[in-house]
Amino acid sequence: MSEDDNNMEEYPTEIHDYLTAFEKSLGSVDEMLKTMMSVSRSELLQKLDPLEQAKLDLVSVYTLNSMFWVYLATQGINPKEHPVKQELERIRTYMNKVKEIADKKKASKLDKGAASRFVKNALWEPNAENEHTSKTSAKGKKRQ
User: Fold this and answer.
1) Where are the domains of the chain?
2) Where in the cell is it found (predicted)?
3) Between vectors from CA 63 to CA 60 and to CA 66, what angle results, nearest 5°?
4) pTM of whole model > 0.70?
5) Is the dihedral of CA 108, 112, 113, 114 positive or negative?
6) CB–CB of 22/30 below 8 Å?
7) Distance CA 23, CA 26 (A)
């Protein structure tokens, strides 16, 4: 009997696909962490604007806390009853704030001067010359 056959006997065959997917996901996380750790943090932050720096910090701390959540679950500890849950909620709150700031930054800005000129020119304003010609032409039409 090979080592794989022994491993298959240790857990139900129904969860084999789940475990395979989990192992693949762990490999992806490991690759991402290696990529992220290959560049020094200070070097990375120098290339980013403050909003991007905040996003990077929030994603990093959220990832770390999420991994701790998974660790607790694998140890048989209910993470919903652990302070890590409140920490994740706090981080999510800050992520939403950063998203609002980014959305405001993307939103188009109103040029009040241009808008007032546009409205002013679009509206018809009677002036003395137009008033006089419209009255005389109206009188002339009545006589005929």
Assistant:
1) 15-47, 48-105
2) Cytoplasm; Nucleus, Nucleolus
3) 150
4) no
5) positive
6) no
7) 5
Q: Say what the pLDDT of residue 8 is.
A: 52
Residue written as tokens 């962490």?
Answer: 33
CA 45 to CA 42: how far, in whole Å? 5
Q: What is the pLDDT along the chain (144 residues), one digit of tens a residue?
A: 445 555 556 778 888 888 899 899 989 988 988 887 888 888 888 888 999 999 989 998 998 999 999 999 999 999 999 999 999 999 999 999 999 999 888 877 777 887 788 777 877 666 655 555 555 555 555 444
Residue 19, CA distances (Å) to 2, 6, 13, 83 in order: 19, 15, 10, 28
Q: Is 108 left (phi over 0), alpha (psi -120 to 50) or beta?
A: beta
Q: How far apart are alpha carbons 90 and 60 in whole angstroms?
A: 14
CA dihedral over 22, 68, 33, 30, signed as positive or negative: negative
**Residue 11: exposed, middle, or buried by beta-carbon count in 10 A (0-12, 13-18, 19+)?**
exposed
